[in-house]
Amino acid sequence: MAKRRRDPSERRARWLLAFVGRDLEAARSGELLDLRDDMLRFRSGSDAVDTLSPAEAKALVEGGEVSGVDGATRVMLADLQKRLRRGIATLESKGRWSLRSPDRYDLVMNEGRLERHYRGGLTAVFLSTAADVLVGCWPQLRHCALASCRALFLPTHGHQCYHSPKCSNTERQARFRDYGQEKERRVLHNGPGRGRGKRRKR
């Protein structure tokens, strides 16, 4: 059976939500560079890696107090992630997220779908593109059912409650642990074998 090819808008939505929840502090040098390339693909709306403008490249290398491209890349990605998280949180709490959109964009056909490809600075283009992706997938988004997670995710089927197998296993283990503790309390309170129905006489 041929594997179903994901819709390009679905791929972009899943990447964006994964980026929102990514732990950038734990990412290694190679992972950061891969994530930067993925971010540039997301920004351009293409499978080809977009390039930074001369001003953006200069800002990336001259990352203030950080030294080297790795440190500056981490700072750049962390800033985009922070702005994106803050925007989504504001949208959920206040019902509105105001952001400054680039002045220019192109309408581009992508695998039968019409998309806006913005022109402008890195941050403005990235956030405007992210907003368009969220508009398209928002009705399908859910929060992870694990109380300590609550991450937004795009379910792969109608019954999916957890955004990752890890969260599902954590919840399952917690329920099993609670069940075991409750069973132990009943035994201590009632004594072994108490609470069972009487055995029939033969």
Structure notes:
The chain is mainly alpha-helical and 202 residues long. It folds into 2 domains: 8-140, no CATH class; 144-194. Helix content is 53%, strand content 9%. It has 6 helices and 4 strands, in the order ααααββαββα. The chain has helices at 8-21, 29-44, 54-61, 68-94, 122-137, 165-190, and strands spanning 104-110, 113-119, 142-143, 152-153. It has a two-stranded antiparallel sheet. Strands 3-4 form a two-stranded antiparallel sheet.
What descriptive keywords fit this protein?
single chain, 202 residues, mainly alpha, 2 domains, two-stranded antiparallel ribbon, 9% strand, elongated
The oligomeric state of the chains shown is single chain
The total of beta strands comes to 4
Low-confidence stretches: 61-67
The whole-number mean of residue pLDDT values reads: 80
Radius of gyration: 24 Å
Largest sheet: 2 strands, antiparallel
Class from secondary-structure proportions: mainly alpha
Task: Count up the domains.
Answer: 2
H-E string: HHHHEEHEEH
First CA to last CA: what distance? Answer: 58 Å
Helix content: 40-55%
- How are the strands of the largest sheet arranged? 1-2
Overall shape: elongated
Strand content: 5-15%
**Number of helical stretches of at least 4 residues:** 6
List the helices and strands and how they pair.
Layout: H1 8-21, H2 29-44, H3 54-61, H4 68-94, E1 104-110, E2 113-119, H5 122-137, E3 142-143, E4 152-153, H6 165-190
Antiparallel strand pairs: 1-2, 3-4
Helix pairs in contact: 1-5, 2-4, 2-5
